[in-house]
């Protein structure tokens, strides 16, 4: 694993900073750095709940118990079941805001946003090698540019999620007609690539869900998909190269608990650090959790 990680790190992030916003090279103007600026108001409370700060102790405990379980299974059972029951009680409560923040079971869902893009095939290859299904939140203009990757995502059995036409982080504040047209246009573009594709989820850019956006998505047959683990792999101004990869690995490793929905990015810029991180993370997560695509 160490060897693989080292190999994977080679070159990670070397082109990251300048190309951070490459997903909108096809036309959009605003930075996709996505789940950042606009996402802060909503992202941080969600992440906080998952333990980015307040959850440090449980995360450490989980990590310790997981390590212990590798050699002696007995000590791991108590904290593991406690963690699972805590998650179960939380997940049985319907989301008051209509947004899914957990999978609703002990299973963990990996979600990849802002693609498809040039790194999407690498993510797909790793998932395929591990036999893991995930969920991809697609941007319409990127679907238009890389329809073949949408086809590959569907062919591999992953779940699709509408992430709007061009990542408008303010979409939810616009008129109902504007929101509906954007989401429909995105779904239509996905259907151009894969005519019978099922699109049962919607994720607002930046996590800036509004009641109106949630409602319109529901009218179009899509559940609003939040998250509760966010390694901020989009934040190339804060981390780069091996530091970014290490950050993603440790954040996901420490914060992922039963029921988690993990946010990462296969598009929106050079995601080689995310690719490198998941080479390490996928086998680890697979050994600890049941990993699922969000059900359709
Ligand atoms: Zn996004």
Number of domains: 1
Q: Are there runs of 5+ residues with pLDDT below 50, and where?
A: 1-10, 16-92
Return the CATH class: Alpha Beta
What are the bound molecules?
zinc ion
Total strands: 8
What overall geometry do the principal axes of the alpha carbons give?
globular
Q: Give the strand content.
A: 5-15%
CATH architecture designation: Alpha-Beta Barrel
Q: Portion of residues in helices?
A: 40-55%
Major β-sheet annotation: 8 strands, parallel
Within CATH, the superfamily carries the name Glycoside hydrolase/deacetylase
| Helix and strand sequence | HHHHEEHEHHEHEHEHEHE
Give the N-to-C terminal Cα separation. 33 Å
Count helical runs.
11
Rg calc: 18 Å
Structural class: alpha/beta
Average pLDDT over all residues:
79
Provide the CATH topology.
TIM Barrel
Question: Can you summarize this structure?
Answer:
The chain is an alpha/beta fold and 296 residues long.
What attributes does this structure have?
11% strand; 8 strands; binds zinc ion; 296 residues; single chain; alpha/beta; TIM Barrel
Overview of the structural elements:
The protein is an alpha/beta fold and 296 residues long. The protein has one domain: TIM Barrel (Alpha-Beta Barrel), CATH 3.20.20.370. Helix content is 47%, strand content 11%. Strands 1, 2, 3, 4, 5, 6, 7 and 8 form an eight-stranded parallel beta sheet that branches. α9 links the parallel β5 and β6. α1 packs antiparallel against α11, α5 packs parallel to α11 and α10 packs parallel to α11. The longest helix has 18 residues. It is globular, with a radius of gyration of 18 Å. The site of zinc ion has 7 residues, from β2.
């Amino acid at each position: 694993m160490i060897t693989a990680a080292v190999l994977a790190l080679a070159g990670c992030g070397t082109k990251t900073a300048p190309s951070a916003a490459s997903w909108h090279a096809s036309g959009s103007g605003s930075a996709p750095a996505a789940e950042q600026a606009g996402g802060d108001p909503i992202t941080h409370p969600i992440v906080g709940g998952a333990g980015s700060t307040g959850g440090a102790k449980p995360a450490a405990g989980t990590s310790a118990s997981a390590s212990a379980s590798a050699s002696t299974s007995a000590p791991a059972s108590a904290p593991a079941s406690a963690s699972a029951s805590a998650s179960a009680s939380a997940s049985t409560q319907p989301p008051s805001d209509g947004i899914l923040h957990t999978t609703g079971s002990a299973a963990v869902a990996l979600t990849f946003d802002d693609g498809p893009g040039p790194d999407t095939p690498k993510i797909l290859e790793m998932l395929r090698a591990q036999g893991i299904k995930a969920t991809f939140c697609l941007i319409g203009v990127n679907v238009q540019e890389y329809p073949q990757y949408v086809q590959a995502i569907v062919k591999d059995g992953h779940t699709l999620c509408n992430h709007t036409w061009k990542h408008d982080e303010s979409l939810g504040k616009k008129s109902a007609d504007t929101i509906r047209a954007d989401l429909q246009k995105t779904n239509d573009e996905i259907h151009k690539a894969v005519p019978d594709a099922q699109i049962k989820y919607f994720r607002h850019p930046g996590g800036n869900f509004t009641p109106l956006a949630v409602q319109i998505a529901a009218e179009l047959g899509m559940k609003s998909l939040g998250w509760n683990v966010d390694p901020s792999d989009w934040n190339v101004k804060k981390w780069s190269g091996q530091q970014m990869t290490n950050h993603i690995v440790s954040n996901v490793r420490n914060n992922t608990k039963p029921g988690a929905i993990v946010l990462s990015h296969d598009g929106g810029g050079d995601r080689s650090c995310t690719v490198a991180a998941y080479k390490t993370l996928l086998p680890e997560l697979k050994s600890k959790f049941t990993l699922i695509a969000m059900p359709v």
